Amino acid sequence: MASDFRVLVLGDIIGKPGCRALFVQLKTLIKDFSADSVIVNGENAADGFGLLPETAEQIFSSGADVITSGNHIWQKQEILGMLDQSPRLLRPENYPPGVPGHGFTVTESKNFRLGVLNLQGRESLPSTLCPFRTAAEVLRKRKEEYDAVVIDFHAEYPGEKEALAHYLDGKVSAVLGTHTHVQTADERILAGGTAYITDIGMCGPKESVIGVEVDTAVQRSLTQMPLKMSVADLPADLQGVLISIDKERGTARSIERIRFSSTV
Questions:
Q1: CA 78, CA 206: separation in Å to the nearest integer?
Q2: What are the chain's domains?
Q3: Which of 84, 178, 186, 213 has its CA 20 to 30 A from that of 227?
Q4: DSSP state, 96?
């Protein structure tokens, strides 16, 4: 509908294949889906672990408005200064005080203010502050700054992701899971108007094991040896979701899975 604000959210970029596909295809996807704002998770863009400043700048130049991340954002020391300096580059908000960067930002397009909140789960991930209480606090303190909020919840377990979505149902436009690199098929609108999906997927090589070379992943499982994981240098899929937000209510009207196969 004409009153909708359309947000394209893409999953974890995996190394050079994910970057190549994103740099070549993102502007076309923005046009094809009439996206008003674009959010991309960039925590695995640097050879599968971390993000470099020059890559972040290329992601922004390709059309992303906000880059979110997760536990791997700390892998490259070079990004730490940019985390402090760039309002559009996020790390999870629920890290302890004193950590570089921030986890919430607001972008504006077509007279609509979209808040983006980045959170990290606590199940089988490094210990962080409570994402539930952190989200509630951010929404309370910053409520005058935004018209709607989309959350990238970088977490391991579906139960934790679903619980957060229900906790925030009606208070945010979307709770979108990242981290597992596997796009799930459970997208839906909850009773209060919040869009949810357990994982939006990845921007990475399709013929891989969550982005890495198949043979190495198989051998790691067979031998239990800590073999070095390398990104599979193959054409990538771009995976994510398109959210349509009712501009007057700030709730989601629809959520659609996106999966585009690149040839680069």
A1: 29
A2: 4-261 (3.60.21.10)
A3: 178
A4: P
CA 176 to CA 232: how far, in whole Å?
A: 26
Q: 151-187 pLDDT, tens per residue?
A: 999 999 999 999 999 999 999 999 999 999 999 999 9
In tens, the pLDDT along 206-237 reads 999 999 999 999 999 999 999 998 999 999 99
User: H/E/C letters for each residue in 160-195?
Assistant: HHHHHHHHCECCECEEEEECCCCCCCCCEECCCCCE
**What are the helix (H) ranges across the chain?**
15-32, 53-61, 80-85, 131-142, 158-167, 214-223
Q: Is 96 exposed, middle or buried (0-12, 13-18, 19+ CB in 10 A)?
A: exposed
Locate 110 and state its tokens: 């077509």
User: Which residues make beta-bridge pairs with 240?
Assistant: 10, 258
**Residue 102 bears catalytic tag:** no
Question: Which pLDDT belongs to residue 262?
Answer: 87
2 Cβ partners below 8 Å, 6+ apart?
A: none
Dihedral angle, C-alpha 178, 181, 187, 193, nearest 10 °: 10
**Token pair belonging to 206:** 């399709």
Query: Looking at 72, 154, 179, 181, which residue is catalytic?
Result: 72
What gap in Å lies between CA 55 and CA 40, rounded to an integer?
12
